[in-house]
Amino acid sequence: MVKQKQKDSRFSKEHWIQKALEVLSQTGGAKIHIEKLAAKLGVTKGSFYWHFESRNDFVEQVLDYWEEKCTQVVIEYLNAQEHSSGKSLVKALIDYLHDNDLLAYEMPVRSWAVQESRVQKRVESVDTDRANFIQDKLVTAGIDAETAENFAHQFICFCVCHGFMLPPLSKEQHRAQLHWLAETCL
């Protein structure tokens, strides 16, 4: 008789993924090691392999989660609203990113991307999607294509790179500076 695996609900797939992102945030994007992650969770690697076929599968699912939560959900949110101008769209984007703390994983994921080419390719793809979305929305709102393209890239750069500033900006300072950027450039 084949014994069926019993799922331990305390360590769901999402729990593993969220813990990986938390560890990335704490370690500044150090490469994810399954053994270390299992130790932090207080479980064996068997729990990991219950949810994921391999480390590669895990990496892809962590990146899927990051992309869904930090890009696709944002796009859906903005598409569900009407915006009277490019500025109002960008202000809604800024507030959504900050209200939901969606910029917290940007630096760690990008630091991880420096260490793994697969992660780098995914980040490049997500950045392209983000820039294209912002640019398309701004052009639709009446902003000229060159300004929209330049703004989209500068906006993404400032969202990502603010964490490198020393001393770091508070969330409210960062939000205020992004609003200033939108007011000044659009």
Write the layout of secondary structure elements.
Layout: H1 13-27, H2 34-41, H3 45-51, H4 55-79, H5 86-99, H6 106-115, H7 117-140, H8 145-161, H9 171-185
What can be said about this structure in brief?
By secondary structure, the chain is mainly α. It contains nine helices and no strands.
The total number of structural domains is 1
Radius of gyration: 19 Å
Q: Which class of secondary structure composition applies to the elements?
A: mainly alpha
Q: Architecture in CATH?
A: Orthogonal Bundle
**Distance N to C terminus:** 68 Å
Number of helical stretches of at least 4 residues = 9
What does this protein look like?
It is a single chain. By secondary structure, the protein is an all-alpha fold. It has one domain (10-185): Tetracycline Repressor, domain 2. The protein is built from nine helices and no strands. Helix 1 crosses helix 4, helix 4 runs parallel beside helix 7 and helix 5 (86-99) packs antiparallel against helix 9 (171-185). The longest helix has 25 residues, at 55-79. The N and C termini lie far apart (68 Å).
